[in-house]
UniProtKB/TrEMBL annotation:
InterPro entries: DUF350. It is a multi-pass membrane protein. Belongs to the UPF0719 family. The chain crosses the membrane at residues 12-34, 54-76, 83-105, 125-144. Pfam families: DUF350. Its main location: membrane. This is DUF350 domain-containing protein. The keyword Transmembrane helix applies. Keywords: Cell membrane, Membrane, Transmembrane, Transmembrane helix. It is found in: Cell membrane. The keyword Nuclease does not apply.
Length: 145
């Protein structure tokens, strides 16, 4: 096999692994930020109680972070170091804005994440906040590009 091809494949695989690692770290951070917003342990609400509201809020938050990570990779133009830094920075901004949106919806609109996750049935407010998470992720992702 051609040496240049092997080097290119190794460099590409290293880049993928680096972006994946930053993406996973951001998704874990996003999960724990949501965990701070809900009463009890988010993982317990999802695994043991099978709470659909907690699950929807967590999955939409993680999907939003994933959109931001993907856009950051796209916008990096192949510059790995700059791309990784931008991915981390924009991911943190996206998580912060999602958190702020949860607070705003609680205080201004009267939809409380804390109250939603106490409900055993899927609530319309959880759907609204989930779409808000995705919207914020999409807006941030497009701003990155």
């Amino acid at each position: 096999m051609n040496q240049a091809l092997l080097e290119n494949l190794a460099r590409g695989a290293g880049s993928i692994a680096s972006y994946a690692a930053v993406g996973v770290v951001l998704m874990v951070v996003g999960f724990y930020v949501i965990d701070l917003a809900v009463p009890g342990k988010l993982s317990h609400l999802i695994k043991a109680e099978r709470n659909p509201n907690a699950t929807l809020l967590a999955t939409s938050g993680l999907a939003a972070v994933s959109l931001i990570v993907a856009a950051s990779i796209w916008g990096s133009g192949g510059r790995l170091a700059e791309g990784l830094l931008a991915t981390a920075a924009f991911g943190i901004v996206g998580i912060a804005v999602q958190t702020a949106a949860m607070v705003v919806f609680d205080r201004v609109v009267g939809i409380s994440v804390r109250d939603l996750v106490k409900e055993p049935e899927l609530q319309p407010g959880a759907r609204l906040l989930a779409v808000t998470h995705l919207g914020i992720g999409l807006i941030t992702a497009v701003a990155v590009i």
